[in-house]
Amino acid sequence: MTTSEKHDLPLARLETWMRDHIDGFRGPLAVEQFEGGQSNPTYKLLSDSGYYVLRRKPLGQLLPSAHMVDREYRVMRALSGTAVPVPEVHALCEDDSVIGSVFYVMEFLDGRIFWDPRLPGLSPAERRAMFQSMNAVIAALHSVGYVAVGLAEFGRPGNYMARQVARWSRQYQASETETQPAMDRLIEWLPRHLPPEGERRIVHGDYRIDNLIYHPTEPRVIGVLDWELSTIGDPIADFAYHAMVWRVTPELFRGLAGVDLAALGIPTEDEYVAAYCTRTGHSRTADWEFYMVYSLFRLAAIMQGIAKRAIDGTAASREAVELGRLAGPVGEQAWALARSLAA
What we know:
Helices cover 42% and strands 13% of the residues. It is α+β, with helices and mostly antiparallel strands. It folds into two domains: 2-107, Phosphorylase Kinase, domain 1, CATH 3.30.200.20; 124-342, Aminoglycoside 3'-phosphotransferase, Chain: A, domain 2 (Alpha-Beta Complex), CATH 3.90.1200.10. The protein has a six-stranded antiparallel β-sheet with strand order 1-2-3-4-6-5, with helices on one face. Strands 7-10 form a two-stranded antiparallel ribbon. It is globular. The termini are far apart.
């Protein structure tokens, strides 16, 4: 969904830049802002040469290593031509003087985005097919040879999970607005229970249904969006964060916990994990529940970052404050699961 309300893009400078950097571009330029994005403001650009999408870093003071739109651009360009459907990226601008922050322009994909994984309004058969397509795409991503597509230096070697736990612990602590004992305990617990180092693959970092574009009428994914957290890392961690949707309720964070999956035609967590393992050749790891604790912890840290940006005035969505309030309950759920594993 877009809104034509007042935006913060300097159209004259942007139009000049697009004429210089995007083949075939013709103005004049008009802008609509997409609603719902929490991290990087995203805009639909309308022109005589067609539609485009612009994604930028937000303005204001930002957390370290956050809002890496340049990484999004690089990984989508590398994945072009693989079995992973991504929009065509046109150009990256790292000159803040154009619109005030780093941005890139990519293809506009005309399709459907679903915010609710229960997929209201669709038939059970359609839901089954859409979950199958979603599963096939993340399996395809984790099967891409990252060296072959030019991403050999896209991530740091070794100790992926240890570095991720440390990173999200720092991000949480940098954005903490009130004491949350569950998160403090998880920051101590997670490094002591790390699984063995696994294989390295391209990971999306935030693969969920609302970061996918489905075909306008067919139940298949035509584009994967929001690659700012992508890197080279543990594919099981990436898949577990995606599969976390089965562990949280619709009220807590657009989840499937407590939903009548059979009636809706949606696979169970076990069925979905089995399909991924069949497609990738993996087997379900004995550390799956650790990955779920980590995923919930990471989600809580991200929510806390959104809360902090809302307080600081840099969040990109009106819903940021409400979403930030959910960090506490998600952290509590993660700590409860960690305690159950210890027991």
